[in-house]
Amino acid sequence: MAADDAEPHGIEVHLDRLLAERRMTLTELADQVGVTNVNLSVLKNGRARAIRFSTLTRLCEVLECQPGDLLSHRPK
Amino acid sequence: MRPGGRRPAAAGEAGPRDTAAPGPHSAAGKPGKDPLEPIEAAVTVVCTLGVLALTLWAVLAVFVDGVGFYLPDRVCVADPSTSGGGTATEGMFGAGPGVDVEARPTFCFDGSTGQRALFIATTQLVLLWHVGALVMAWLLIRRARKHGPFTRRTVRGLTLMGRYLAGGAVVLHLVEGLAHGVLISHATDYWGYARLLDATQVRWWPIFIGLGLLTFARLIQLATDMREDLEGVV
């Protein structure tokens, strides 16, 4: 399904910023978190519909951040 | 499983959106459980036989006299909704003592060109409807094979086919009833449209199969939504 068909939401993912601050590539993060590059790219580009708590936990562990640093809500 | 302990990425691994297409191993990971069988094999065999028969008929029509498409000289219309009998009928069919014969009439007459065309058109309409259903089924299976069974394309195809079968059977009943009524009224004095009101002449199976396909399309829609949700989970 195209991303355009997905239900609209106001959640923004700041993976780009966190990666840049830590001078880390998407591939390195994917390796350390244990998810595929494709899935992480889907998350980074805002095309994910949901994120597992387990993935969020690993992302926070690897990036040494809180979920709030990774995700934010932008009111419409 | 520990958090985040899933398999790491492999080079060239399929993305999350490439999982819709079916394969022989896609149904719960069990080999030999192709979700598109056995209907794919059945439709392929019938379509192949149909194309072969049509090709043979076309070749014979070119080289053999008497084979081809002609308007018949006489129109023969059966009225399955009317029956009658009597001493003459019983004698004609050699009925024994105490046996009643109920015969259903078939009216044959030299029709005008218009009547013969109406007769042939009605007959061919039924054939075309069957061929149309077969072609739709073939296209639907082909698309499901290419794009996956749990896609919006499949839902649209199933819905279309359900409407075609259920609606087509009703329309066909009305068209046949009216056309035969016109022809029977030409041949006899009695009201020739009884077939229209005869429930036993309605093609009930296509109607129920069509309604079943419409329900099945809604189920596939739910499954498609679930698949898309799952693929969007990271």
Automatic annotation (TrEMBL), chain A:
Transmembrane segments: none annotated. Gene3D superfamilies: lambda repressor-like DNA-binding domains (1.10.260.40). SMART domains: HTH_XRE. This is Helix-turn-helix transcriptional regulator. SUPFAM superfamilies: lambda repressor-like DNA-binding domains. It holds the Pfam family HTH_26. Residues 15-70 form the HTH cro/C1-type domain.
From TrEMBL, chain B:
Residues 1-33 are annotated as: Disordered. It comes from the Bacteria. Pfam families: DUF2975. Keywords: Membrane, Transmembrane, Transmembrane helix. Residues 1-14 have a biased composition (Low complexity). Signal peptide: none annotated. The chain crosses the membrane at residues 41-64, 117-141, 162-184, 204-220. This is DUF2975 domain-containing protein. It comes from Streptomyces harbinensis.
